[in-house]
Amino acid sequence: MRDVGKRFGGLTALDGVELDVRAGAVVGLVGPNGSGKTTLLHAAAGLLSVDAGAIAVAGTPAGSRTARASSVLIPDEPTGFDQLSVMELVSLVHALWGAGDRATARAEVLVTAFGLDNLTFGVPEPATSMMMIAAGLIGVGTWKRYSSH
Hints:
alpha+beta, two-stranded antiparallel sheet, 5 helices, 39% helix, globular, disordered C terminus
């Protein structure tokens, strides 16, 4: 990220953000409410455009197919997916990103190996957070290694 800025009307959410993350690193942001953490992550995932600067993921623009395949965004809460199983969520992400049947088949093996095949996201914390992390890791790991792209 180079000199990233984002405004919402008169509110400056990001101003001159600089960040370098090594390949394979796991990143979490800590800060008070309203400090721009979610805005920064959404911009890095390509879900939100920035007003200034540039964001590259895996050497490509944030939100590009290569960038999405090389990263995962795990939300605080799986809003809208409360009744999905881990495999249903992974299958949905694979379908949306065109991951291919090999990636989905490999994810099924991992979901079973981790004992997540009978859980849904409607379970209480911390199980929901653990399931989101597992779904994210399974989704990205199987996409990169087993996709046809």
